[in-house]
Amino acid sequence: MKKVSLGICLIALVMFFGLVGSPSYASTEGLLTNKQMETGNFSGYDFVPSGEVTTDVTDGDDNTFYHYYTYGTGNYALTYTFSNETTISAYKLLGGKNIIIRFMDSAGQEISRVYPPVNDGTITTITPVEDVKEVNVYTSTSLYEMDLFEVNLYNDSQTAVPEHPTSLNATVEDTSVLLSWDSVNGADTYTVKRSEISGGPYTTVSESVYGTSYEDSVGLINGKTYYYVVVAVNDSGESENSNEATATILVTETTRALLVVTMENGIEKEYDLTIGEVQNFISWYEGNSSESGTALYTITKDYNHGPFLSRKDYLVFDKIVMFEVNEYISQ
Questions:
Q1: Does 5 map to a domain?
Q2: Which helix (H) or strand (E) holds 319?
Q3: How many domains does the chain have?
């Protein structure tokens, strides 16, 4: 249905409200959704109703509109009175030209105005306006006619879906990937996702991550490249993906060995050593065989210290029956 008309009121500009972003709201339903707005004009400072109402700018239908006209006794203003005082923190405007949104308190006094630079239907946040009882939407243009398709207002109770995380960074440490990102206002938790293909599809690695870092160490394969994104989550839903961060697992392989020494009393002593440590033991043993070595060889155990500062075994050359070296690859 077409709208009744609106026109122009030349009211001095008082102040601009700073726009602070355009977040995605949980729902397009706002404080004015499907509400009847009175049409009319102004007599000086006061709104004068025409006796007609319209929902064409609050019905969520971009094809219906309210027709403003400023000539004669034309209607160039819309107004709505809330049942209780409320706080306004965002607006949406589609169409119109030089529109002014004026906020009034319960005493009929102006609190402030917004001169929306955005009229493309984007939900745009403003510095919150408290104790609003009435809102006037009118034009300051000298055009005779124009169409306003949609107007709506929002407050903090209509929680916004959080913005996507930024500055996601991935660092490889041994066989793990350390992720970090910037904090997002309004996010309760974060979800970490990864893929083996740039751009996804991504598989969830972990949900309900608190804080802005995460260590991924499950199921990673040496030599593979992984692609990560993070989303911010609150009660209204999850954000879009963060920037993609890349990590390639490249673990250096080293050769180690299990040295098994059999003593003359039948006891076997087993040591997990680097190849260099094994070579040192063999050199000591061979030196003793040629009667040029020391009687004892010391092996320091760098595992299972328990309450001790260090643990060492002292092997006596003439008590050794044999030894065995079992090499393996360590990552």
A1: no
A2: none
A3: 3
Displacement of CA 255 from its chain's centroid (Å): 43
Give mean pLDDT, residues 69-90: 77
The answer to whether 116 and 93 have CB atoms below 8 angstroms apart is yes
Give the domain CATH number at 179.
2.60.40.10
Q: What predicted TM-score, i.e. pTM, was given to this entire model?
A: 0.42
Question: Are 213 and 325 within one domain?
Answer: no
* Arithmetic mean of pLDDT over the chain: 81
> Using one digit for the tens of pLDDT, what is the confidence trace for 151-170?
999 886 555 678 899 999 99
Q: Which two tokens stand for residue 44?
A: 């000086």
One-letter amino acid at 312 equals K
**300, containing H or E segment:** strand 296-301
The pLDDT value recorded for residue 3 is: 38
Concatenate the DSSP letters of all residues of 227-242 into one string: EEEEEEEETTEE----
What would the DSSP string read from start to end of 67-130? Answer: EEE-STT---EEEEEEEEEEEEEEEEEEE-SSEEEEEE-TTS-EEEEE--S--EEEEEEEEEEE
